[in-house]
Design a protein that fits this description.
With about 120 residues, the protein is mostly helical. About 75% of the residues lie in helices and about 0% in strands.
């Protein structure tokens, strides 16, 4: 049925998920290639395992964040803010990503590039 209420919201949510998925794929491939190129030959396998470990830790962080918002104290704070649980989680993750990006930028300024790609 065309014109149902919420169709625009579903399209917007679908577009947001598609954009986030594309971004994650591009960042993952670029980061993994960079990590691989900077590792010496004897450490390339170890770097790949640490990449997988960092993805696992990130997924656990998201899981713990989602579970922690269900606590009574967090739910009361969310209700008093006037935002939904989902909006508060998105603001939290956006703020966390901004802080992480700023820290990575500081580290990247001082990072000496290595040429281990073809070793």
């Amino acid at each position: 049925m065309a014109g149902r209420r919420g169709d625009g919201q579903h399209r917007l949510a679908g577009a947001a998920h598609a954009l986030l998925t594309l971004g994650e794929v591009l960042v993952s491939a670029t980061g993994l290639e960079f990590a691989y190129s900077q590792a010496p030959m004897s450490m390339k396998g170890t770097i790949m395992s640490f990449w997988s470990l960092s993805v696992t830790v990130g997924n656990l962080w998201v899981l713990l964040s989602n579970v922690s918002i269900k606590s009574p104290g967090a739910l009361a704070a969310v209700k008093s803010s006037g935002y939904s649980e989902t909006a508060c989680l998105m603001f939290f993750f956006a703020g966390f990503a901004l802080v992480a990006a700023a820290l990575f930028a500081l580290v990247a300024r001082r990072y000496p590039l290595l040429n281990n790609y073809r070793d």
